[in-house]
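Model: You mentioned two targets. I'll fold them one after the other.
Researcher: Yes, keep them separate.
Model: Target one:
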Amino acid sequence: MGKFIMKATQDGGVMFNLLASNSQVICTSQTYANESSCKHGIDSIKKNCKSKVEDQTVDGFKVLSHPKFEVYKDKAGDYRFRLKAMNGEVIAASQGYKSKASCLNGIESIGKNAPGAEIEKSRVNHLKGSAGWGRRYFSTAERPFAFRKIKINDYR
């Protein structure tokens, strides 16, 4: 089962990632002003996770009503999706995928993982790149507050 991880952003907001059971990030939220708004966004993901898919990568695609997933190609040529709520606001976005099939699998994974996912608050705050629609993967040098396993003798 997946889980939502809420964390503080560098600009003082709150955002979340939806993780699959293998701990891979499926989608990322926008930055919210506060924790309450972020939880509302999570509820919206759970409510809309089975929405129809609008494939904007095909010529003459049919524009669907909200809520919906939109599949599109970014400037680098990667496939991405975004989930839009009933009001048309983007509530989650994906990483880039090399194939459309992988992108569609990401959408399917939201449908499997979001409904029963628990919400956890991250104890790791203010990671570089965590604000908004930014990067979701970090090098060790960019994780100054990341946890590491320590031995009891490390502090003696």
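Model: Target two:
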Amino acid sequence: MALYLLNYNALTPAQIAQLRGITLPPAQQRYAGTIDSALHTLNTTQSADICGLALLVDATPQAFMLLRRGALLPYWARTDAAIIQALQVDEAQQRRGLGRFFLTALAAHVREMWPEVRCLQLSVAGENQAALSLYRRQGWVDTGPGFRGQAGFERQMTFVL
């Protein structure tokens, strides 16, 4: 099984169509939204400070995330950060290590793409124990007080590059 990250802009039309097929269970959509909403954000934001990344499994997109930096950072993020938004692993591919691989490969990808970025950050619902456990196992640290997000109480997590 060949796993690799690819920028959205480098996907073929067939891969973009496959990417649009990513689905999440309704409970996860509450946190990450849908692939259509993530792609809408990406395709309507004209900025070098946003990037879509797909995780391909044998050349087929099975996961996706948005990265934002600079002028597109939320108020709670460090100015030298890139934030992860809308991390989505296709429902049929979950519990196979793809999220773990995505987070591991992401650090090197961001260092190459945006060398001025010093850390990755994200916001995660405090009740989302599966996600919190994954992030902690991957070396992410809880670095911010909770705040009220759209899905309830959230925590800030940081991974230093």
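Researcher: Noted. Anything on target two?
Model: The chain has five helices and seven strands.
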